[in-house]
Amino acid sequence: MGELIDTILRRRSIRRFEERQIDEEALRVILEAGLYAPSAGGRQGVLFAVCQNREVNERLGRIKRANSSPKMATKDSFVSKEQPSIADDPEIKSAFYGAPTVVTLFAPKNFLFAAEDCAAAAENMMLAAESLGVGSCYIGQGWTAFDDGYGQDVLRLWDIRRDYYAVAQVLLGYPREGDAHPTPKPRKAGRVLRF
Length: 195
Ligand SMILES: Cc1cc2nc3c(=O)[nH]c(=O)nc-3n(C[C@H](O)[C@H](O)[C@H](O)COP(=O)(O)O)c2cc1C
Known about the structure:
single chain, alpha+beta, NADH Oxidase, four-stranded antiparallel beta sheet, 5 helices, 4 strands, 31% helix, binds flavin mononucleotide
């Protein structure tokens, strides 16, 4: 119990990765955690597309970056100073930040709970990753990575059903050596309402 809470509290979004690929056994466990996540109606509709091809990940990440227009950081409003996001640093060219493993979570287009199912699976995966020393980051609006001709070719190559869409990506990789583990922002007060 204590260990689980420690893992939950310690997990942070990692965007600066080592080049080396993650351990295969760690990946297996992370995917298992995703497969065992809750799903609406127990339908297990989420598909986990694991890509470790650096060129493909780089190209999709650049497409996603090009299709994103985040509200850029200011002195008082930023995502992360230690692990900068595309909203913090306009020089970052890939929305996948060079992660060696990118897992795209696909779910049925016509399913009301597609996004929730993917988010639940992603959180399980990110907590499993944290417990194994693997860094992770949730990337929303996953479909924008495939929103051009190359992205569409990749979907065909991966044989993704046309009635499924990319809800999100989970980036995986080892945090860069020498980087301090990020400190969380203080929690905003008044968010727990008790009656
Ligand atoms: C729904 C959702 C979408 C997110 N999308 C992105 C994203 O597109 N790019 C990114 O770098 N981080 C993304 N994040 C990660 C958040 O920026 C991060 O969780 C937040 O800044 C809090 O930091 P922490 O995860 O280290 O606690 C997303 C997180 C969630 C929950």
